Amino acid sequence: MTEERTCKVCGKAFLPNKYRPNQEICSSLECQYQRQLDNMKTWRGRNPNYFKYKENQDSSWKETCRQRSLDWRKEHQEYLKLYREEHRGRHRDYMRKYMRDYRKKRSMLQAGAGEKSTGV
Predict the structure, then answer these.
(1) For residue 5, what is the enclosing H or E element?
(2) Which residues constitute the domain of residue 23?
(3) What is the pTM of this model?
């Protein structure tokens, strides 16, 4: 039989899961959330460079990725045509929204540049 333990987070007594006899944290959502946060913090401490991408080290990295994407599109034009045909409505809606946002940003930038040049 397993013995009662004290949770390292909340300090309350709990019975460990029979499949996890070394359990140190109770199964309450708050304690499990705190356990996950602590685990992430520990992991990030052990792996400090994991999220530092190559683009920080080599400026040509971004251009290489862009070129790889362009090459793939050139080699798979038929796939893209078929995909767009199959998802015509969704693609049309996406492009409509994309262009609306693009024009809005462009007009805001032009309006901002116009104000600076006129001194208003």
Answers:
(1) strand 5-6
(2) 5-46
(3) 0.44
